[in-house]
Design goal:
homodimer; 435 residues; alpha/beta; 15 helices; 10 strands; 47% helix; 13% strand; globular
């Protein structure tokens, strides 16, 4: 069984076989461009075979995670964008939703709290409050060390750590994930003696979750990073070997391209497990930042079902016909519950007695896909067997690779992000930043 | 000063004065239709003057909240859609992001945890685990009592409460917010002796946050519900009195209608305070469910800035030109921090030393609006003075009222949601539900 399955039967009334086979050559060309490193942005292809590249610092990273788990009730991860979303996506998919609360209550584990991902003094004050009477460490993640949000935030935590543990003690609790040789953070880390991990030069932020950027926080959360990387490696093998007709990655890229060319404006990534919420946020960055340029690209949006069927459901069913849906399905849940019988049966649910909740959830997913297809919303489906580290690794690589292929088919450089600078330029001007 | 200000200067290059004045009559007609209760869906206008209507049970509701705060470490709120999003939006806007974690750690307060808003057994198992060794109460919120997600979920909590406290003890910890006389939950509550609160017949789910649906959980979270209601009342007065040219509510409705008619497909509600994330989710239901019908309506999406400038920012700046932005601004933050000077200045941030973080956040907001306008994204702005209960009450009423006006201008019934039934019908068939 493949690590990630792709099913487009829910789009067959929208995309003809003919349309798909016409896209075969184009898709394969994009794959070749990618594999041969001859396309636009080819200096940022480090993510492509990353799961196969040995990282000399990996054992040191695991040791650092172990140390943090021993000496810290909280790890504050300071980063934004690609230095934030990947780790959060993996952690929320694979840990208990109350893992942080339990760690903060002293029930074990290290809470992983994200900061430096906004400029809100309200939020930052709360994080400073929650760590000030607890043992904590900081993982600051920034290629340059000068990105405003994490840099401003790190100043506060550095000061607090130095007040609490002294300058040397603080240095032993700060881990910098940054450039191998250049940049402000690297310079500071060397001067202060922080342990550092490297963001490879050829891996862009939104593709960096399987580098130390994602791996250190993920390991601190107690997740099996070996399995995560193994899943990505497995996916790499599959997409290199499988022919177009059975290549999940190529078919997803081709199908979404077909729907975009038919005039769809929005791709909605949906799930039926609340833990996948941040995987969707990570996916939004991956696709939005890779494809949203030159006036082109699908607008990436997300829904958590069945929750959002009771909010966005009406629009999806009956509103403007501008979107298609890609569902992420987990075939076997990590935990399940059996619905009991009730003598009074006021709620009329005894017809479900003896059924597992997951069974009900799966029928909701089937019924939703049918209803949305009827309503004119093409449905694609991406499935994994379980929500475990291996599958999440596979999903990450699946989406990354499909994104690159899809971006080349759109005719853009999927690896740059020129538009992100625009607001910063204005902000720096308003703030009077020295040139 | 108005409780909610509306500024459309960021759209002036997209909407002419002429366009706005052409919409004046149409907007005023929609307002009259609403006030005179002569439009479609006029049996669901209870929300309209709700802030003015005395609720005989309000003191009892506050007493129930006080009791829960005394005898429970956790309140589990079981509800979905409108029986979930409003309370969560208000609570997250007005409480510390770690309030639940602190309550669970025994540092005071009652954690408010939402369940029954999905069919995930993984999530539900975790909530059951977190409450089983703690004192807890349940607020089950459902008009009918038969909506699958909350009904299935409530069975588990009822069983756990009865095991823990006995049937009578459990009954004293269950609060049912439901229909005044009909429905499965009302019947069960009467039979078991649960304290009940009423969802008014003429208030639909997405407009129910200022009824007991929202007020009980909000009060348990320690929020000043008097101020919340007073803010809504204040907004009601403003929108009744102010003429079109200075009526924030009418102008927002007219501006978004103008942009929709120009061909925009997506409205992006953005904020610069992480605490507003769920207000956006609430807004997405309000607008998506009210307007997304008959193949029409703006697709409602949300971003938390500056966080998402590092993920969705590229698309917004340079991708397909299908959206406009509505920013929610908080003029004065509840807490602020001053950026310190650093002797080494590795990060080059000393030019900000002595500045408050909020000042930087505000320049980011200004710079972003300028950049997005330059990029072809019209910018609307909704502002409140502070993020306090009064302002949030005002914002809620502002968005509700503008939504109704806007829906009438779109030519739909803003108060029904026929499309929500489609997936349920399929699901019930698949589950073999008796007819």
């Amino acid at each position: 069984m493949a690590i990630v399955d792709f099913d487009m039967s829910g789009a067959q009334s929208f995309i003809s076989e003919n349309e798909m086979s016409q896209l075969r050559n184009e898709t394969e060309d994009a794959c070749v461009k990618l594999a041969s490193k001859t396309g636009a942005g080819n200096d940022f292809l480090g993510w492509y075979d990353l799961p196969l590249r040995p990282d000399g610092d990996y054992c040191r990273l695991k040791a650092a995670a172990e140390k943090i788990r021993k000496d810290s009730e909280v790890l504050v991860v300071v980063g934004i964008g690609g230095s934030y979303l990947g780790a959060r996506a993996v952690i929320e998919a694979l840990t208990d939703p109350f893992a942080n609360a339990r760690a903060l209550a002293g029930e074990g584990g290290t809470a992983v709290i994200f900061a430096g991902n906004s400029i809100s003094p309200v939020y930052l004050s709360s994080v400073l409050d929650i760590v000030k009477d607890r043992d904590f460490s900081v993982n600051v993640i920034s290629k340059s060390g000068t990105t405003t949000e994490p840099a401003v935030t790190f100043r506060f935590f550095k000061e607090l750590l130095e007040k609490k543990y002294g300058r040397k003690g603080a240095a032993e609790r700060i881990y910098a994930t940054t450039d191998s040789s250049r940049g402000a953070l690297k310079k500071m880390a060397d001067a202060e003696g922080y342990e550092t991990f490297v963001i490879p030069d050829d891996v862009g932020g939104r593709f960096s979750v399987l580098t130390p950027v994602g791996l250190l926080p993920v390991a601190v959360a107690g997740i099996d990073t070996d399995a995560l990387l193994a899943g990505a490696r497995e996916a790499f093998g599959e997409y290199n070997e499988a022919a177009f007709d059975v290549n999940a990655c190529c078919r997803y890229a081709a199908a979404r391209t077909a729907l975009y060319r038919q005039g769809k404006s929005v791709e909605l990534l949906v799930n039926y497990e609340p833990g996948l919420h941040f995987l969707t946020e990570w996916w939004k960055q991956l696709y939005g930042e890779s494809e949203g340029k030159e006036g082109k690209g699908l607008f990436p949006a997300g829904c958590d079902f069945t929750t959002d069927l009771h909010s966005m459901g009406q629009y999806i069913q009956d509103g403007a016909r501008i979107m298609f849906e890609t569902a992420v399905e987990v075939r076997v849940p990590e935990r399940d519950l059996v619905i009991g019988s009730d003598a009074d049966n006021y709620d009329g649910l005894n017809y479900l007695a003896g059924r597992s909740m997951d069974y009900v959830n799966k029928q909701a997913a089937k019924g939703t896909a049918m209803a949305h297809i009827d309503g004119g919303v093409p449905n694609l489906k991406v499935s994994v067997e379980r929500l475990d580290a291996r599958s999440v690794g596979g999903l990450i690589y699946f989406f990354e690779r499909a994104c690159a292929v899809s971006g080349y088919m759109l005719g853009v450089n999927p690896f740059n992000q020129p538009g992100v600078e625009a607001y910063k330029k204005n902000m720096f001007k308003l703030l009077g930043k020295p040139m």
